[in-house]
Design brief:
It is an enzyme of class 4 (lyase). With 259 residues, the chain is α/β, with parallel strands linked by helices. It has a single domain, classed as TIM Barrel, CATH 3.20.20. The strands form three sheets. An eight-stranded parallel beta barrel has the order 1-4-5-6-7-8-9-10, surrounded by eight helices. A two-stranded antiparallel sheet has the order 2-3. Strands 11-12 form a two-stranded antiparallel ribbon. Helix 4 packs across helix 12. Bound molecules: indole-3-glycerol phosphate.
Length: 259
């Protein structure tokens, strides 16, 4: 699944680069100020709430809301930051970032498969505050290069790992925000015990986020008690019976609202 998505992405980016070369919009890029990282670091607990309408395995998810409506619900109920899909396998598009940005003051992570430095410039141009870098699809050289380009643009990177090998590779880079993905991107199955298994190998220098498969307040609480700094949640929020209430519950830090 992952290989297939990445192959398509390479083709897509090649077309995009021809249609809209970097030289056309580079001068319009306004440098960011790392507010995604700052927002997370200054709170005792972070909920990164994902505006997710579909997934490659499940198709359309169970929500009646648009990305912007979800963003508004998350914002009103204590989320720390938002994640916005821009890849078409998730029914995303680049314009979603601008649309969501117009309805919320929260920092925004662009959720996509970054495989070319061009996409990093494009992310900042579109208004993202952070990008996702997936260690499984990048070489060490690419990771270092992309971290550098992002830093130059004032963009934060959430660097995603799923295995111990990836975690150890990432910890040799300048990555500050590291996400342990509980979803195996080869099979798309989730298991939050992946975070508990990898945590002992995390250096104290990184800010640790647990991603995917977090279904309810109890999962959130277990991860919080284990010492992760925050969680990234999509389906658990989008498919909740009461999205606002679930956002509030997952945003709680030791029983207190922390936003
Ligand atoms: O909906 P979930 O299980 O809460 O997962 C959200 C998020 O972590 C997931 O969308 C994700 C994390 N890393 C990815 C990489 C590619 C695609 C999707 C993802």
């Amino acid at each position: 699944m992952l290989n297939e998505i990445v192959t398509k992405k390479r083709r897509e980016v090649a077309i995009q680069k021809r249609e809209r070369p970097l030289s056309q919009f580079e001068k319009d890029i306004i440098r960011g100020d790392f507010r995604f990282r700052k927002g997370i670091k200054e709170k005792p607990w972070a909920l990164i709430a994902e505006c997710k309408l579909a997934s490659p395995t499940k198709g359309e998810l169970c929500t009646a809301y648009t990305e912007c409506e979800l963003a508004q619900i998350y914002t009103a109920n204590g989320a720390t930051a938002l994640s916005v899909h821009t890849d078409k396998h998730f029914k995303g598009k680049l314009e979603n970032i601008k649309m969501v940005k117009a309805v919320t003051p929260l920092p925004i992570l662009r959720k996509d498969f970054i495989i070319d430095a061009y996409q990093i410039y494009e992310s900042r141009w579109a208004g993202a505050d952070a990008i996702l870098l997936i260690a499984a699809v990048l070489s060490d050289e690419e990771m270092n290069e992309y971290l550098e380009v992002a830093a130059m643009l004032g963009l934060d990177c959430l660097v995603e790992v799923h295995t111990l090998e990836e975690l150890l590779r990432v910890q040799k880079t300048s990555a500050v925000l590291v996400g342990i993905n509980n979803r195996d991107l080869k099979t798309f199955t989730t298991d939050i015990s992946n975070t508990f298994a990898l945590m002992p190998y995390c250096s104290s220098k990184i800010v640790l986020i647990s991603e995917s498969g977090i279904k309810n307040q109890e999962d959130a609480k277990r991860l919080q008690e284990a010492g992760v700094k925050g969680i990234l949640v999509g389906e658990g929020l989008v498919c909740a019976h009461d999205i606002g209430m679930m956002t509030q519950e997952m945003a709680l830090c030791q029983g207190q609202r922390c936003s």
